[in-house]
Specification:
Layout: E1 9-14, H1 19-28, E2 34-40, H2 43-57, E3 66-70, H3 76-88, E4 95-98, H4 116-137, E5 144-148, H5 174-198, E6 204-209, H6 223-236, H7 240-252, E7 261-263, E8 266-268, H8 277-291
Parallel strand pairs: 1-2, 1-4, 2-3, 4-5, 5-6, 6-7
Antiparallel strand pairs: 7-8
The chain binds NADP nicotinamide-adenine-dinucleotide phosphate.
């Protein structure tokens, strides 16, 4: 049964406290008909962002409506607690933007013991999205899911389904774990879209490379590497406002697209590996095992 709130579209946005997500909220804050829910692992930082948005945009958008809720994507327990609290609000969910992500320089683990990059970017994103599918399916606007991936998803040439993430520090390579996590993001979006369509759901799912810029993502990488990344950005990077426009545009999804991979605002062909249907299915099954949910979901 459809869940209606009235006129406002409820947008749940992860990773809005910094970088590309923070910038995208500057665009979304101008929309009059949205209720924005920002998740934050630090409520202090999340509240500060909400206050800044209110003081900057309330005078031009008196309908601006922002709520901050606590969630750490690197902890299954925190995600489950968030989902419980969100569902207890008894409000609809129309759009979910999974933008939060990490790229740590060294080997670290989530609270559940998984390598931090894959653990946060894929397992956390997967569990959050999976747990909210029933809400999204009831959206009177038609649910919309945006998974923020990256062009780095083109790098992996194979996928080892039994070793989705590095397990020991000595084997860690940030390029590999990050690129793998972003490959899984694209594959997850594809497989989820297929499964939703098979169930007759109208929920739309797309993934996006938001563009390339310097953010906190690489803040602990050391002076020399950061200098190199800055140089790379100078020649190949994107403008932050174009990136924010791209992510905001897919968040609003006025074109009603589904099953696509975007680079900023442009629909693009994702990597061949990411479109391998058998692998997408295997990745789904394996991830369900890891995050501890049934392979088949109910809407
Ligand atoms: N920057 C690029 O060039 C680029 C290129 C391609 C794709 N991307 C993707 O774009 C997305 C945003 O990255 P960004 O560059 O904007 O990075 P960023 O500046 O580091 O921002 C990352 C956001 O994710 C949040 N986050 C990180 N770990 C979290 C956790 N465990 N639980 C909850 N939230 C968490 C951060 O929260 P805090 O504020 O608490 O740190 C922050 O809001 C990521 O998915 C990234 O992979 C970025």
């Amino acid at each position: 049964m459809a869940e209606g709130s009235g006129t406002k579209k409820v947008v749940l946005f992860t990773g809005g406290t910094d970088g590309i997500g923070r910038e995208t909220l500057n665009v979304l804050a101008l929309e009059r008909d949205l209720k924005l829910i920002i998740t934050a692992r630090s409520m202090v930082k999340g509240t500060k962002v909400a206050e800044e948005l209110n003081s900057k945009f309330k005078s031009v958008n008196d309908q601006l409506d922002i709520t901050v809720m606590n969630m750490d994507l690197g902890s299954f327990e925190s995600i489950k607690q968030f989902v419980k609290e969100f569902k207890a609000l008894n409000i609809p969910l129309d759009t979910l933007v999974c933008n939060a992500g990490v790229m740590p320089y060294t080997f670290e683990k989530t609270t559940d013991g998984h390598e931090l990059t894959v653990g946060t970017n894929h397992y956390g994103t997967f569990l959050l999205t999976y747990s909210l599918l029933d809400k999204l399916n009831k959206s009177t606007f038609g649910g919309n899911i945006v998974i923020v991936a990256s062009t780095t998803h083109y790098s992996p040439t194979k996928l080892d389904i039994n070793n989705l993430a590095t397990t020991e520090a000595k084997n860690f390579s940030i390029q590999d774990d990050y690129a793998n996590s972003k490959l899984y993001n694209v594959m997850f979006a594809k497989e989820l879209g297929k499964r939703l369509a098979e169930k007759g759901s109208n929920v739309k799912v797309n993934s996006i490379h938001p563009g390339f810029t310097i953010t906190n993502l690489t803040k602990n990488w050391g002076y020399v590497v950061v200098a190199f990344i800055k140089l790379l950005w100078y020649f190949t990077g994107n403008n932050m406002s174009d990136m924010a426009e791209g992510l905001a545009s897919l968040t609003l999804n006025k074109q009603n697209e589904t099953g696509k991979y975007f680079q900023l605002k442009n629909i693009t062909t994702p990597s061949q590996l990411s479109q391998n249907e058998d692998l997408c299915e295997q990745l789904w099954d394996k991830t369900c095992e890891i995050v501890g949910v049934p392979k088949d979901f109910t809407l």
